[in-house]
Specification:
Blueprint: H1 2-28, H2 38-51, H3 72-79, E1 99-107, E2 117-118, H4 122-130, E3 134-140, H5 145-155, H6 157-160, E4 170-175, E5 181-183, H7 195-201, E6 207-211, E7 261-263, E8 270-272, H8 310-313, H9 323-334, E9 342-348, H10 352-360, E10 370-376, H11 390-405, E11 410-411, E12 418-419, H12 423-432, H13 438-458, H14 461-474, H15 485-493, H16 508-518, H17 523-530, H18 533-542, H19 554-566, H20 571-580, H21 586-592, H22 594-601, H23 610-616, E13 618-619, H24 629-648, H25 655-663, E14 678-682, E15 688-690, E16 695-699, H26 705-717
Parallel strand pairs: 1-6, 9-10, 13-14, 14-16
Antiparallel strand pairs: 1-3, 2-5, 4-5, 4-6, 7-8, 11-12, 15-16
Helix pairs in contact: 11-14, 12-13, 14-20, 16-17, 18-19, 21-22, 23-24, 24-26
């Protein structure tokens, strides 16, 4: 009995102790601080235990128990498994600003805005310009939606009669893939038209907007109808010509209500609040930098419209056509996408020139046939990648590079080449000859030039290089950007029609002799320099007088020497090269639109940057609220930081390497990609690329940026070109 009473007493005592503990916990829990560390947990225990000493003796046992229930903050800390993402590593370049210059065209609202409308061209574009509905705009990449809208409103304020601070109601337009039309892109309710999104929408050409009110003066006869070969029955008519004052304008609908004007903290000028969002349903903010309807140059003040129809082309200035539009027309005129004709090319990466030239010099080679490439390793084993665009882009890139660097037909800087009769042979030969008399060297060298030139010409290599460049451009490859201005002028304007450029002389000894003549100060000094035996031989070959009769003839002598060294001495080889450019009508296009082809055949100073590469890829994220979405967003942040490191030289990888790995091209092709490049995700350790569908997969595995960066660098450095197909 005594034992039973003792057990009962112990049970009652424990029950009372638990009741007191629970009561104290409920009372003190709101007063306890947030528990964020073991030290705070210890302090919370001491607070709870000291508060209970005045209640009952049994409460002192709280300090002796390790499993006492503490406040909910402690429970959340103990049970939380949430991964804390590392902070985004910032570099000084992360805050760099970029100003992008764009042509902007404001079209009139249609009766049914949901339908696509034709891109204004020719006379239609000219009427918009007369009404003040076209212009140029500079967009800062860090601007928010309000600042962009304010800048556009200020540009068109006079055309619409807007007062100071008044905002023009308009919607942005984007190109319809595969067509030459515009539509209103669908966007989610939370989507913001910040500067980066606006730039991406117009990344390859002009920016189009549709005003939701009529201008003070509507363009006369503004129908924006298509040309004869583009017309169809479902094109909407635009508003008829009329003149409306500010009072006559129709009232805005709820979705068109103008936003209140506020002051921008960045610009210090009127802008718009973000209370009202644009009407839409879904849209990916990062669209392709290159598609089928715009140009490939992202930052330019001279971007223009896509290719016109054949009927309108004859009455429109060539300056209104873009390179991509010109190439698209050449492709449509020559290449049948649905044809069964194929150029089946088997090639090794290390022997591209050898394997490709053998194929292209065949009698049955058809430059108009669709290119289908299969790469093989040095053992001859097929890589197995199905060519749906990726292998073709890589092949054309490697082939153009080989034509420039390994064919032995060009001489000079790699991005400023001039044509010599097998320049490789010339340079090697001159190293072996040490005659002191320049005249003998010149004569002997000319003999050797002829030997090498005859061999290369007999093989058809000079004409072949011209054919390769045309073939590449029409089939979606690069143009090379390696011709000198002198060489380009000879192709675009004809041999001898333009003077050679002294900057294209790459032989220092020859350049020194010419500069002596160019900078002679007196007639005697000029004639003394002209007596140089090397120059005398050139003047004799030109049939030119050997001495100057007056000082004013100095420029004529310089031009004669330059033209001989760079043009006349290789005239018959230039003719072979130009003959190769006649393939598929490319030579006629170059001579009709020389300015557009200059940017793809000669050195282009436009360089890739992190923003440009980021905008090339369309990010495919999971839906909001899914478990994988936060991990994907972290990977996208790492991806953009990685691009910035590549741009700033903080990585062993360049932005060109990234593009080669993902697309096979080191630059956005002049003709664009045949599908929108996509950025998706993989659970693997390393990035991979679907070379056929232009899709780059980045890893989700890494929670730290440095680990992600190491994985990206390892994969790209150890890939011969593409990621895994």
């Amino acid at each position: 009995m005594a034992a039973d009473r003792e057990a009962l007493s112990r049970t009652i005592s424990e029950a009372v102790s638990r009741a007191v503990t629970d009561a104290l916990t409920a009372t003190l829990s709101p007063q306890l601080p947030r528990v964020d560390s073991p030290a705070a947990i210890s302090q919370a225990r001491q607070t709870l235990s000291s508060a209970g000493t005045s209640g009952t003796a049994s409460s002192s046992r709280i300090r002796e128990q390790d499993n006492v229930r503490l406040p909910s903050a402690f429970d959340r800390l103990q049970n939380s498994h949430t991964h804390v993402q590392p902070k985004k590593r910032r570099t000084q370049s992360c805050i760099k600003q970029k100003v992008v210059n764009k042509n902007i065209i404001c079209v009139l609202q249609t009766d049914d805005p949901s339908k696509a409308i034709p891109i204004p061209r020719g006379e239609s574009r000219a009427r918009l310009a007369e009404a003040g509905l076209t212009g140029k705009i500079a967009i800062n990449s860090i601007w928010q939606e309000a600042e962009v809208r304010c800048e556009i409103s200020n540009l068109f304020a006079s055309a619409f009669g807007l007062s100071d601070g008044e905002v023009l109601p308009f919607v942005y337009l984007s190109n319809v893939p595969g067509g030459r039309k515009l539509c209103i892109p669908k966007t989610s309710r939370s989507f913001k038209w910040n500067a980066s999104e606006v730039i991406s929408t117009a990344a390859q050409g002009s920016l189009y907007v549709m005003a939701e009110i009529p201008p003070l003066t509507c363009p006369a006869a503004e129908k924006q109808s298509l040309s004869d070969n583009e017309s169809d029955g479902d094109q909407p008519d635009l508003q008829p010509t009329r003149t409306l004052s500010m009072i006559q304008r129709p009232a805005a609908t709820p979705t068109e209500t103008r936003r209140p004007v506020v002051t921008s903290p960045i610009l210090g000028k009127p802008t718009i609040s973000s209370e009202t969002n644009s009407p839409s349903t879904s849209y990916n903010s990062y669209v392709s930098l290159v598609d089928e309807d715009e140009t490939t140059v992202m930052i330019s003040s001279d971007e223009e419209e896509p290719m016109q129809s054949q009927g309108q082309e004859q009455r429109t200035s060539p300056d209104l056509l873009t390179l991509q539009a010109i190439l698209m027309k050449l492709r449509n005129d020559n290449v049948d996408e649905h044809s069964h004709r194929r150029s089946l090319i088997n090639v090794r990466r290390k022997h591209v020139w050898e394997d490709a030239s053998r194929h292209l010099l065949r009698k049955k080679f058809d430059p108009k046939a669709i290119i289908s490439v299969k790469f093989a390793d040095d053992d001859g084993n097929s890589e197995g990648a199905i060519d749906a665009g990726g292998p073709r882009r890589e092949f054309l890139r490697l082939l153009i590079k080989a034509a420039n660097e390994h064919a032995g037909l060009f001489y000079g800087k790699l991005d400023q080449r001039v044509l010599f009769p097998n320049a490789t042979g010339m340079r090697n030969y001159e190293k072996d000859w040490t005659e002191k008399r320049t005249k003998k060297i010149l004569k002997i060298s000319n003999i050797m030039f002829s030997i090498y030139a005859i061999a290369a010409r007999a093989k058809g290599h000079y004409k072949l290089v011209g054919t390769i460049i045309c073939w590449s451009l029409v089939h979606g490859g690069p143009g090379g950007n390696f011709f000198s201005k002198t060489l380009f002028d000879a192709i675009a304007f004809g041999i001898g029609t333009k003077d050679a450029e002294i900057n294209d002389i790459h032989d220092n000894e020859v350049l020194e002799k010419i500069n002596k003549v160019k900078f002679a100060n007196t007639l005697d000094e000029l004639n003394r320099y002209l007596k140089e035996e090397y120059l005398q031989c050139i003047l004799q070959a030109q049939g030119h007088s050997l001495q100057a009769s007056c000082f004013d003839e100095k420029s004529k002598f310089v031009k004669a020497i330059l033209n001989y060294v760079l043009v006349d001495s290789t005239r018959y080889l230039l003719e072979e090269l130009i003959d190769g450019f006649k393939v598929m009508g490319v030579l006629d296009a170059i001579r009709q639109y020389p300015e557009q082809f200059l940017e793809v055949l000669c050195k282009n100073d436009t360089k890739l940057d992190a923003i440009m590469v980021d905008l090339i890829f369309e990010v495919h994220l999971a839906e909001d609220g899914t478990n994988i979405r936060p991990t994907q967003e972290r990977a996208v942040v790492f991806w953009r930081d990685f691009l910035q490191d590549c741009c700033d030289g903080e990585s062993a990888i360049t932005l060109a390497d990234v593009l080669i790995f993902a697309t096979g091209a080191s630059q956005p092709p002049p003709l664009g990609f045949n599908s929108t490049p996509a950025l998706e995700f993989t659970a693997g350790k390393f990035p991979t690329a679907n070379t056929c569908g232009v899709t780059l997969y980045i890893p989700l595995l890494y929670g730290e940026y440095e680990e992600f960066k190491d994985a990206m660098e390892f994969a790209i450095q150890n890939s011969p070109s593409f990621g895994h197909a």
